[in-house]
Predict the 3D structure of the following.
Amino acid sequence: MALSVEPGGRRPAAPPLHRLGDLAPVFARAGEMRTLLEGFDWGATALGHPEDWPQELRVAASICLGAKYPIAIYWGPDLTLLYNEAWSAIPGDKHPWALGRQAAEVWPDIWDIVGPEMDRALAGGAMWTVDRLLPMERRGYVEETYFNYNLSPIVGAGGRIEGVFNAGIETTTRVIASRHPRVLIDLIAETASASSVEEAFVGVIEALAHHREVAPFAVLYRLVDGVAHVAGSTGVTEGGEGTGPTVALGSAEDRWQIGTAVETRRPVVVDGIGAFADVHAVDGWPEPAHTAVTLPIVRSRRRRRRVEGALVVGMPPGLRIDDQHREFHAALADRFALSVLDARREEEERRTFETEHRIAATLQRSLIPALPELEVVGLDGCYLPGTDGLEVGGDWYDAIPLPDGSVTVVIGDVVGKGVAAAAQMGQLRNALRAYVLEGFSPAEVLGKLNHLTLSLSGSTFATVLCLRYEPEDRSVRWCRAGHLPALVRHADGPVDLLDGDGSPPIGVFEGVVFKECEGRLDPDDIVVLYTDGLIEKPGEDIDDSIAALVERVATLDIGDGFVDAIVSPLAETDRRDDVAVLVLCT
């Protein structure tokens, strides 16, 4: 009698272990799948009891179940499914129901794609595909997923094809992440020459219209005296309930919740938008967007936080809002806010000279994130682009709070200037953030970053300082890759250096063992991280420059203007290099 189970449920244990035959040791190596496989009613499937499996299936099962890479076996003319622990995440809520089922039953939503591929494999052909779009329904909705995978025939005795071998890995996160920088770069290009706020608003809509896979639709509002005026849209029919020419903030007509976004200065998620907006479906996807995010466009983050407008951005219907999208939306709003600020400051007589510089500078600013507001530490930062020539460099910083309560701060400088340096800086920042969030130590993070940098085509080297602070015991660990040492300003005035053993810059040598140092901070200590543009002067020894900075920081008043005081000697002068400063207050 077959055991019944629904997708997402469990099969009760039934068959005795002696029916596994000589495959019992193979099942024992299956990790967390072991209990499921040993208690599975194989006799109720087309595969039959494991002790009766043919030699070809035994070999395939041994390879599959013992591997740590996602592998599945589709066996027989009905393509009955067997898979390992690593592959079990791919069907989502269909696991463990999918085990022992026919492929067409497991994958009806994508059978028009993978069915013909299976047929080719059964006919003797092998294939490998990269970043293949598979619109799967595995979590209750049609999900936009991407995979690298192969399908190859399993050949039995006499050359007969017995099944299909499938190895693959999901690449959805990487594919989606690769789109976001392109949107920001296009937004920069479309708004770079704007000489008015109106031109900047037009530019952002034109940029988003080219990336409907990221933003299926967008509606842009400009705020005037508490009323939102439509300034442009794409992917949606204007004039309906959700896209009328004007909206009074906080009124019943404010279906996008613009008033809430303006009041809180935070993004607002709006669901069920089909009830009030005629959103156009993106070509190749069966349904239009049903969720949007309303982003307040805050013109300044350091002084008056004036809200210039609101940008409503649709979410791709096959994706759900996660940290990756939140970070992108924050960067999009920041980038647009900078475009508005640039447009207001644009001067007619300097337009030709400043265009190229602004594209590179604003690209870099867009990739330097807004610092998080944390209860356990205070964070503040400042970035000043160089003024010597048209191009800018690759200075950057970041602060990453971790689930265990610790905070990692990082500052770096990509060698070189212009869009290439700023773009590589963005790649390094995103990779480093991912390594930190995976829980690696500062030294491990820089080791992985070094390997990645050496693998990038046309990459240059960079200096990086990565520091992790544990608020619970005020311990600190750091690793320097060719970067200048951080300073620690104590509450009573003295300043120490967090120097210790250093390591070579990122991207110079393969196989470097990066050295990590540790220490402990006192209450109310301030850690100052900076790039060389803050202190380097032609003809001056770098040690003398650091000593001068230590002496000056010791005299500064601690408070809201501490970072501004650090960079004030350079703020109104010509600068040969970019300057980045990041401070952490315990």
